[in-house]
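Pasting as-is:
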Amino acid sequence: MTMIFGIPLQALMGQLLVGLINGSFYALLSLGLAVIFGLLRVINFAHGAQYMLGAFVALLLLTVGGINYWFALILAPLIVGLFAAAIERSMLSRLYKLDPLYGLLFTFGLALAIEGTFRYFYGASGKPYAAPPQLSGAVNLGFMFLPIYRGWVVVASLAVCIAVWLLIEKTKLGAYLRAATENPVLVQAFGVNVPLLLTLTYALGAGLAAFAGVLAAPIYQVSPLMGSNLIIIVFAVVVVGGMGSILGAIVTGYLLGVVEGLTKVFYPEASNIVIFVIMAIVLILRPAGLFGKEA
């Protein structure tokens, strides 16, 4: 049996895969947070609840609506995004001119309300969600068996992250979005509907969280608490990458997921805190984050 640093290769690669999968969810969720904070300057504490909503909407589409996984993967983020757009237009938009603390408190309360509603109807225990038949089974790589669905999660997450980065950084719409955060009055003077851009931005961030929830549903139990268990880690990832940095959210999400996975091999006792230790070190050495801009 091949050994690396006294660790069997199969065990090492297995934990690396787990790290990549967790990193995929960290990247998608932190990307949504970074988009919302970078363009709206709102710390969206409801992000974990929107992640949970994506998983539950997909579950309901599958079990009640009779829709297959592939349609649910598209429809669930759209439904959650529309819900988020309605929340932003009717309530959150009224808080933009106030202290950012009000936005944080509002989204925190929204998260509690959503989670409480689903706990009332579904309880705290998880619900099963089957992976699609096309992605069942595993591939023998020689040194390990790679579950096809878990490989799909990594590929799909990376593709969506790259697409969003290109949208924000390389398109005219992305340029309007970035300009609207810097000088909304000037952008509106050029005929751009800034309130609509802000609504679309919040819907995009929530849709990314819901997309991650749909991907996570066949791997983890669909539970009302699945978002609250993850959101603190995701906030740490965003801080390490740099608040509002799109590229930082993506790179740091995958990187910290891999570091967490490898820590479970070499020092399992520290695996639950390694991300927070890294966050503390980064805040001491570079308060703006690895990819953030110094004020």
